[in-house]
Amino acid sequence: MTSLNSPKLVIFDLDGTLVDSAADIQIAANNTFEELDLPEQPLNQIKRWIGGGAQVFVEQALNYFGKSEWFDQTYNLFMQFYRALPAERSVMFDGVQGFLDCLKLANVKMAVVSNKPHELIEPILKHLKLDSYFEAVLGGDSLPKKKPDAAPLLYVCEKLNVKPEHCWMIGDSSKDSQAAVNVKMPFVGVTYGYALMGSDIRPQEVPHIVVDNLEELIPMISVKTNVYA
């Protein structure tokens, strides 16, 4: 474990980091599969396909079924079902609320950078009463490139006027850790997410830690000041 400096900005992944949205994604996916006469899938399998955004999710599912040529129809159906109920069963992971409140008290800026389509992020944040915490929210279609590309993190840093080395990227996947590496940003990995799935996402190129609960990070947040020399 590497010690990290208290940040001026924390950038969060969404699915598998802040929010357990797998049950809603499963409903949309299985409704889609039923329409296409494909077999319903258990939650553990659905989780394996989360992390790259809706298009990647559909691509991986269709590759699993050997039906990659069905992409357009499947994607449109999936988005239709997911838009209808984006946050019916989604919940915050344990420790999220306490950590966000700590950052707010310490005047640390916060942002969300997800690969999920932007139109689906706001309803989830509003449903969970999290939307007021974040000064910037990017989806996988907000910019021409998404994580692990550096562009989304750099965009947020520039928008909020914070240098990458004074930020943390928090996520559950190698896409998150590689994005942090690409902008030389300290990284915090969470063990409870979907994309980790037993893999090691610790990036040796930047300062990093891995936690089981975001409240473990609270002692590292400076409430007195977040001004760097």
TrEMBL record:
Enzyme class: hydrolase
Cofactor list: Mg(2+)
Reactions mediated catalytically: 2-phosphoglycolate + H2O = glycolate + phosphate
Pathway: Organic acid metabolism; glycolate biosynthesis; glycolate from 2-phosphoglycolate: step 1/1
E.C. numbers: 3.1.3.18
Keywords: Carbohydrate metabolism, Hydrolase, Magnesium, Metal-binding
Coiled-coil stretches: none
InterPro entries: HAD-like_hydrolase_sf (IPR050155), HAD-like_sf (IPR036412), HAD-SF_hydro_IA (IPR006439), HAD_2 (IPR041492), HAD_sf (IPR023214), PGP-like_dom2 (IPR023198), PGPase_prok (IPR037512)
The family this protein is said to belong to: Belongs to the HAD-like hydrolase superfamily. CbbY/CbbZ/Gph/YieH family.
The protein, known as: phosphoglycolate phosphatase
Organism: Kangiella taiwanensis
